[in-house]
Amino acid sequence: MIERTLSELIGKRVLGVLGTYGAASVGMDVYICGVHVNSDIELTATFPKGHQLVMDEWVTLHLDNRTGVSEYDAELQVFRLSYKGKVSRISPHEVSIHAQEYQVFYGASVVKEYRAADYQYPLDQRRDTQLPVSPLQQAPQIDLNEQDNKIGVLLTHALRQPHSTVMAFLSSVDDDIFLITFPETFKAQLLRKDNRCYFAIDSRATFAFEVAIEWNYSIISGEMYQIPKTSPLFAQLKEQFICKNPWEVGFFSHPAVEMYHLRPLHVVCPQMA
Asked: How many other β-carbons are positioned within 10 Å of the β-carbon of residue 202?
């Protein structure tokens, strides 16, 4: 079987969500950018409003081919990857990023992967802690405007550079984000070490990517809390998840899943990505 190129899997021109810790930043910087896939190991990211990236900066780009797709099955049958790389060339509105490591997923399977010969996973010795319990006492009003947006991009605080992943979500009219996952996943492990995170919601379900990078994005930063299974909120929100994503009823009803509440601290809504 001939191995497909990265551009064949996700497209030559796509949208990306880029996360970095920056040279002087104490937290995470998140950008929405246009991405041109030059090869399996290099891409160009475009920022119409400019950027503050520097040479050799470690970055993570979430990439996928879900533009124009509004329906998903239980295994997220889209090509997607968390592209770990370093900035190799800079101009005021553009950077080149050289790949260090990535795995392209389709459903639950890895269909393509790359790892630079000198790339080492950083040893994470941060202590695990229990996520704090959500302060919500009753189910919030769900934002029905986001009903067509089935999944968003979660960025968590891994060492050296962020980690990104797509997740089904619920959002409230007050910008609370609710997520469900298994406790053994990498993102869940990271949240137990640092519960700060970002979540990006786009409008790909209702818009098509043509020429301009003109999108309405919501980028929500905040802290992650847990909703215990013993809380009445758990059952109420689970039913809302199933209503929004009925093909994932088996996943949402699995006895091992945990429910998280991203409590918003800051919301950014750029007019142009």
From this structure: 22
| Percentages (nearest 5) of helix, strand, coil residues in the chain | 15, 40, 45
Other beta carbons within 10 Å of 25: 10
Evaluate whether 239 touches 253 at the Cβ level (below 8 Å).
no
Token duo for residue 117 = 């010969």
Q: Which of 180, 186, 179 shows the shortest CA–CA distance to 159?
A: 186
For residue range 37-83, list pLDDT tens digits in order.
999 999 999 998 889 999 999 999 999 887 544 445 545 567 899 99
Report the relative pairing of strands 218-227 and 196-201 from DSSP bridges.
Answer: antiparallel
How far apart CA 166 and CA 159 sit, in angstroms, is: 19
Question: Two tokens at 133?
Answer: 């319990």
| Dihedral Cα 43, 185, 68, 18, nearest 10 deg | -30
